[in-house]
């Protein structure tokens, strides 16, 4: 069984927990129940593949615990809500702090704009796209309520949507059109 671990980080109330359950095709109550520390949601994708989501608390009281998990994981999904500008600024600050503290060395980082069924703050998507492209990060957008973007995110986390490298040419000159 291939097991892929993904740590979701971001401010409170931006939908990380509900996103984990939506990714795992599981029901989650719409009533807000803040995450305490870190919880794990398991997602059996097929007979050979499992995703484990480390769903972290957004409240800053839990930062020391969350940092420990981030330090020990290969894939981190930075989340912000399309409905909450503060959560975008929080994400940028968090990313900078993790980078400065060397916590993202050898880590694959992706960005997810959550709650896209809600009303957006100004330039919510453009800000996320700009942040992602300037830091060479992949960008996703999801709604845990409508299901928009959920399948794409699963494929992205499993790198099943990434175009494979071209085969190495065995003879002659071959220029791949990047
Ligand atoms: N409309 C809408 N509501 C959502 C969505 N995702 C989550 N919610 C609601 O937003 C509230 C917060 O969601 P959570 O998933 O608990 O947020 P969280 O980021 O895990 O919060 P913390 O655990 O405190 O960090 C809950 O009432 C959810 O039902 C979404 O995509 N769309
Ligand atoms: Mg939560």
Description:
There is one protein chain. By secondary structure, the protein is an alpha/beta fold. The chain has one domain (2-157): Rossmann fold (3-Layer(aba) Sandwich). 29% of the residues lie in helices and 24% in strands. The protein has helices at residues 16-23, 63-71, 85-100, 124-134, 150-157; strands spanning 2-9, 38-46, 49-56, 75-81, 108-114, 138-141. Strands 2-3-1-4-5-6 form a 6-stranded mixed beta sheet, with helices on both faces. Helix 4 links the parallel strand 5 and strand 6 (138-141). The termini are far apart. The chain binds guanosine-5'-triphosphate (GTP) and magnesium ion.
Keywords:
globular, disordered C terminus, alpha/beta, Rossmann fold, 29% helix, 178 residues, 5 helices, 6-stranded mixed beta sheet, binds magnesium ion
